[in-house]
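Instructor's aside before we start: the two examples that follow are unrelated to each other. I chose them only because their records fit on one page, so don't look for a connection. First example below.
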Amino acid sequence: MNPSTLIGMLVGIMLLATVLLFSTEDPALFINLPGLGIVLFGTMAATFISYPLREVLRIFGLLGTVLRNERLYARKDIEELVSLSRLWMAGDLKAVERALDNVANPFLKTGAQLVVDMTPEEDVMDLLQWRIARLRAREHAEAQLFRVMATYAPAFGMVGTLVGLVNLMFLLGDGDMTSIGQQMAIALMTTFYGVLLANLLFKPVAVKLERRTEERVALMNTIMQGISMMNRKRSPALMRETLNSFMAHYQDEINDGRKGKPAALQR
């Protein structure tokens, strides 16, 4: 599991436990199934109306992505690209083809294959840039899905609050304090559930997905620069230093204060 996600989940559970144990004499007061149902089902209903079914069904897969400890093996990709460039400059096409079969990164493999096929550099760069733009747009839409849900959850929390207040108005004349208390609980707890889900689940997932996209795009841009250098038959040693310097600078920007040059980008 992703360490930061695990820490966030544990701290969130500790926060809720603190609220339940130390802010009330009866923790069961914070459990209100009708209010929770209004928020959850209302949010899901609005999401299904807003998005096609195939996109909504990806929510669970995206949650799994956030939980996994994914790594982008930047140094491994750079070394593979340098090795391919060295074989390409030596004119050993068969060795290049064999090496391409072992490349795991499809973006790198496509770019190198186009170079081997003597595709003009402008066409190679256009294709790679299009693939980067497509990935950025797709993953932005995935993160936006959770941001939209983060706006729906508090709104349906307010819907539950209004429902509880309307029912409360009808019960005030009867003077039944038990019923009045139950309706007041629905009125208050739905807002609590909506705000909690929005700020402790939906928004953090959206931010983590956006951060994941930034890292992936940075690596793809690095590879694209290497493909361009390979096409121009630049020195493999120069390629290695250039790409490693690029990734080291990126690491400095996203890991302020950390020393060293890790072998892989990780979330």
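Example two begins here.
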Amino acid sequence: MTVWVCLLRGVNVGGANRLPMPEFRALLADLGLPGAVSHIQSGNAVFRAAEAPEVLAARISHGLARRFGIATPVLLRSLAQIEAALAANPFPEAAPTALHFFFLGNGLSDDLQVSLQARAVDGETLVVANDLAWLHAPVGIGRSRLAEALGRLKLPVTARNLRTVQALAKIARTLP
């Protein structure tokens, strides 16, 4: 069985898409994923499953819509993928709150990457590899035009800061 990290986009942000984590864990258990562990209130969970990620994501998405009325992208990464993302971090000296991992539904074209890079200000740097982008935003992500553009892509995308990705990896490594 694979250890999966589930990343939801836009839950419990500014009062929208309210999803209490105990209820999210209960939904996962009802979907045949018992023992899921959640991390903070922003829609992160870690669990074991044998199914393909596309099947799991569809089940979770359907369950969220049916039970809570939440329609949001569900992105799954295996523990191995999370570990690889951390190991490949192109900004090892960045402060944990200045580095964000953008998990993408698929890769970005070269033209789109160039277009995104053009939005960088205040020392921001974007590195893209397949379905992952690292954004180093030294002055913060709150006012970043580059982060805003990444969030508005016409594909499933969600971001987590370095500290959260490290915590999810730790949980996934120790999942019973």
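The CA atoms of residues 9 and 173 lie 23 Å apart.
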